[in-house]
Fold this sequence. Notes:
Distance between the termini: 45 Å
CATH architecture: 3-Layer(aba) Sandwich
Number of domains: 1
Strand content: 15-25%
CATH class: Alpha Beta
Structural class: alpha/beta
CATH superfamily: Vaccinia Virus protein VP39
CATH topology: Rossmann fold
Amino acid sequence: xxxxxxxxxxxxxxxxxxxxxxxxxxxxxxxxxxxxxxxxxxxxxxxxxxxxxxxxxxxxxxxxxxxxxxxxxxxxxxxxxxxxxxxxxxxxxxxxxxxxxxxxxxxxxxxxxxxxxxxxxxxxxxxxxxxxxxxxxxxxxxxxxxxxxxxxxxxxxxxxxxxxxxxxxxxxxxxxxxxxxxxxxxxxxxxxxxxxxxxx
Length: 200
């Protein structure tokens, strides 16, 4: 166990103290066993036909492992050592990195950077711009940054996501209400933001 698995933000600390990680991890397995689809995020991002992907805030590796199963080369990054150990246990052959999204430099860019699971909302508020912008820096020309987040009074807004991405040269390519591509209504409580780095 990590000395401080709740490092990251107050909200992350609260989530980690309230959640049984065994139960959380097995929930997705049960979905699959029951015939439900636990891979909506991967279904969504595969429309962009990535060959390489950064799973940013990868947790125990659910998204990254499924992307790999579909032929994508994946690097997973997370700040929570306990969750990352679970990812390594599930797929020891993959490239998992313990690092802060606001500061990590992987020295390369990817066709796709996917940030699922409310990751940015759990980043300390002052670090959220840096985390999004740093994710954007890892997007290759022609590549995509796709982020899924709840919308509430204390988390980032759609306008903020657009602004932070624009600072790194990415342009908005759509906002959806969920991973099935639902149309964004007037008062959404969840958004999937899609941004692209132009080729030139």
